[in-house]
C-alpha cells in the first residue's frame, strides 16, 4: 500500500520533502519486504551509506546532483532528471554534490 501521498491529486514529487540544514530527511511511500520507495533530501556535502543486500536499487535524482560510489570504487554523478540502477549485493554511498532530492526504489527478486 502506498502511504504519505495524496490520493486522486497530481503533485510534484520533489515538493513533498523540504531541506533541513546539515540533515538527511526521508519520506517513505512504500516499505515492504519485497519493495520499497523512499524519497530523500540531503543538504550539500551530506552523505549516507546503504547496503543493497539482495535488492536492485534504482535511484532517480529529482533536484540538484549527487555522487554515488559503489564499495568505495566506482563513482557516478547523477544529476536532476537522471537515474542509476545498482545491482544487488553492493554497498553504496551517496554524497550530495549540492542540495539534492532523490527517490530510491528497491526490489527483491
UniProtKB/TrEMBL annotation:
It comes from the Bacteria. This is Uncharacterized protein. It comes from Faecalicoccus pleomorphus.
Amino acid at each position: 500500500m502506498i502511504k504519505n501521498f495524496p490520493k486522486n491529486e497530481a503533485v510534484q514529487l520533489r515538493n513533498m520533502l523540504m531541506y533541513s540544514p546539515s540533515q538527511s530527511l526521508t519520506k517513505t511511500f512504500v516499505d515492504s519486504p519485497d519493495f520499497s520507495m523512499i524519497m530523500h533530501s540531503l543538504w550539500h556535502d551530506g552523505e549516507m551509506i546503504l547496503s543493497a543486500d539482495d535488492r536492485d536499487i534504482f535511484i532517480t535524482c529529482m533536484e540538484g546532483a549527487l555522487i554515488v560510489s559503489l564499495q568505495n570504487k566506482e563513482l557516478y554523478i547523477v544529476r536532476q532528471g537522471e537515474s542509476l540502477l545498482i545491482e544487488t549485493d553492493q554497498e553504496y554511498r551517496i554524497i550530495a554534490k549540492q542540495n539534492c532530492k532523490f527517490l530510491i526504489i528497491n526490489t527483491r527478486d
